[in-house]
Amino acid sequence: MAAGAVVARKKSAGPPSPIWGTLRALWKDKQRVLFKPEYTLLVAAVLWIAEIGINAWVIHRVEYTEIDWKAYMDEVEGVINGTYDYTQLKGDTGPLVYPAGFVYIFTVLYYVTGRGRDVRLGQYLFAVFYLVTLLLVFRIYLRTSKVPPFVFFFMCCASYRIHSIFILRLFNDPVAMMLLFVAVNLFLDGRWTLGCCFYSLAVSVKMNVLLFAPGLLFLLLCEFGLLRSIPRLSLCAAIQVALGLPFLLENPLGYVSRSFDLGRQFLFEWTVNWRFLPEEIFLSRYFHLALLGAHLSMLLLFTLYRWNRSQESIIALLKDPAQRRHTSLKLTADQITYTLFTSNFIGVCFSRSLHYQFYVWYFHTLPYLLWSGRVTKLAPLLRVLILGLVELSWNTYPSTVYSSAALHACHLIILLSLWYGEEAAVDLHKRK
Predict the structure, then answer these.
(1) φ, ψ for residue 289 (rounded to 5)?
(2) Residue 388 vs residue 323, higher pLDDT
(3) Distance CA 137, CA 123 (A)
């Protein structure tokens, strides 16, 4: 009787559920899941869900560190109280040095967090910014389909510094980069005008986003030619004027000189990338001019020999695409991403100084730069090692001679690999 019951139970057990079957298949094929870009969506979804818990854990278990949040609140409070002269706006850490978009966004945060006093709520809001940024970045990697999914673990869950910048320090850099990644996604969708709007909004939060500008200008010329690019460039400028109008009417020179201060002097004690130099060289204007020259030279070289993959000259790109000698193909997701990310990376490499919060300027682009298909001469393990050394350099506080030298070495390897990558070499050979 008992044996019959057992047989009956076995017969009643139906076929395994489709979900269970899929999970078993994925487990058997786990190596493909980790290494094949077609599984990007699956791995990204798992990591993004895990990040919800990680962010909550960090907020509750790791102590918040006050650096700039109170200063941000003091600065926007000055505007709320009626001060529109930028030279009169300041916080605990110094004068207001960010464009008007920063003021509007952090004014909203000021009110939502009870005049900035509810820091815990602010941390949760920045956790939302972090998760939105990850979604935007994952979508870029899904569209380009270049990076093996296992790398995404190093891009999110494993980075202490990035979590710190977002939810333990509440810097404005993550807000600017979130808006920038919205713009990049819109460019990938072919929505260039709306993308330019979000790009300009990102610049209005912090001007480091201008490092993407040379790449964006090149892409606009490729896609539209000079005449049809002018309205989009004008839109970017108009947004800056509209956002800054209350401050421009009060003190135009004060607003421009403070919010877009290209000659701002950085303190040696906070530098991450130039610690191995004597302080007098770090502060030297000749050193700054040399870095600017190297930056512009590298941009020119990449524009001529790496970004331009068509058979047209750079001058020919000024023409309307319909009037060019060769039929212009639509820009691919890979070309758009490569041009924007390398433009920004070159700027980071030749920055006069990098502070700890500046890591977010290029952190999410590093996997693409290392696995984009142009870097073919680096073994996968070496690429992971480079990511690890970059992370270690940014986690070394205070920075040391060795940490800043290691950071430059990693940057140099990435830059040379992008220049000598096989795809780039093939494109150059075709043009010849």
Answers:
(1) -65, -35
(2) 388
(3) 21
From CA 367, how far away is CA 138, in angstroms rounded? 11
Token pair of 299 as six digits? 């941009």
| Residue 332 reports pLDDT greater than 80 | yes
Concatenate the DSSP letters of all residues of 226-247 into one string. HHHHHHHHHHHHHHHHHHHHHH
Non-local (6+) Cβ contacts of 170 within 8 A are 68, 69, 72, 119, 122, 123, 126
* 389-407 average pLDDT score: 97
What's the rounded Cα separation, in Å, for the pair 370 and 374?
A: 8
Token digits of residue 419: 């220049």
pTM > 0.85:
yes
Question: Are residues 40 and 149 in contact, defined by beta-carbon separation less than 8 angstroms?
Answer: yes
Q: Which two tokens stand for residue 412?
A: 């140099």
- Please list, in sequence order, all residues whose beta carbon lies within 8 angstroms of the beta carbon of residue 252, skipping any fewer than 6 positions away: none
H helices then E strands: how many in the chain?
Answer: 20, 2
Return the higher-pLDDT residue of 168 and 157. 168
Within 321-379, residue ranges assigned H as helices are 333-349, 366-371
